[in-house]
Amino acid sequence: MRIVVDCRYVRVGHHDGISRFTAGLVAELAKRHPITMLISDRRQLDKLPALPWELVSSPTSVREPWVARQVRKLRPDVVFSPMQTMGSWGRTYGLVLTLHDLIYYENRTPPRDLPAFVRVLWRLYHLAWWPQRMLLNRADAVVTVSDTTAGLIRRRRLTKRPLTVIPNASDELGTPELPRQRPEGGRLVYMGSFMPYKGVDTLVKAVATLPDHELHLMSRISEDERRRLTRLAPEARLVFHDGATDEEYADVLAGATALVTASKAEGFGIPLVEAMRLGTPVVVSDIPIFREIGGDAAAFFPVDDADAAARAIAGLELPGEWERRSEASAAAAARFTWSASAERLLELLLEVGGATGSAAHARRNR
């Protein structure tokens, strides 16, 4: 069976969540079954395993609705895409699409790196539910990354297709000696974008009330946003890394008091798993997906409540509390591996590819 994976969402330069989701799954899938990758830029190969690949048009191209015309020339049995927007008109193969979250229905500001015409379409797309239903129902099966998002998809009745949870995981950032001891100082780490729904303002205000703590903001940031956050709470000790390599990120995270996140909505939360694998506690906003990932290991605070966030962070200083949460975090993170997710995904792809092949054979022999 020929399995093709859409790797066109792998970021050139710095990985983001969907980029890592793609690369992590492809590497593990390839250990179990031959894989062909679809790319739209040869530079994407820097973030992908050494596997057979084919070059097709970009997912942000005006040709995307008809990309199946290019893909079907490869004669795949089934194609897996880490997004839900892959064009499907004219396909002759099984198709599995992925819906990571429903964040942009409430927070309609699109990612800033998209072309202008795509940003306009993005906003229009998220004004109603029917475009999402139309795309998902053109697939043979749908994947999402968490039980939380699966519940939302079912509640909104977004697809009639089988829905499978394939969890995210984290890349290998090191193997610390466990159990760990609480590090010196009060280093807090935030890894994520600066979109409004991420709640970074809440973190900055919380740190401003904790004079012995500093907040390390790891992601790339614009000069305007840097100035805004600095003015928001001048007394807060902020360290801007403006983008960090995996090695730099792992080093900062391994010596941190906690990873902190104040997001109002997420589809998963890879940084939580990254921190927990290293035995670094997480202090996060109390939203369903973080409850699903962090469980009893995480410390929670209400969304938009900077004072409560500061109290939760300070709570790690209680005798034995940091060590307890560190040990619990490492145990909780062990549930999320690319290996386990790839096993589940391969089972689904073989099922869809087999069913599609049988249907095509039946049509040819009528």
UniProtKB/TrEMBL annotation:
Assigned keywords, A-Z: Glycosyltransferase, Transferase
Record Pfam families: Glyco_transf_4 (PF13439), Glycos_transf_1 (PF00534)
Span of domain Glycosyl transferase family: 187-323
Organism: Agromyces tropicus
PANTHER family: BLL6006 PROTEIN (PTHR46401:SF8), GLYCOSYLTRANSFERASE WBBK-RELATED (PTHR46401)
Domain (Glycosyltransferase subfamily 4-like N-terminal): residue spans on this chain: 16-169
Superkingdom, natural source: Bacteria
Protein name: Glycosyltransferase family 1 protein
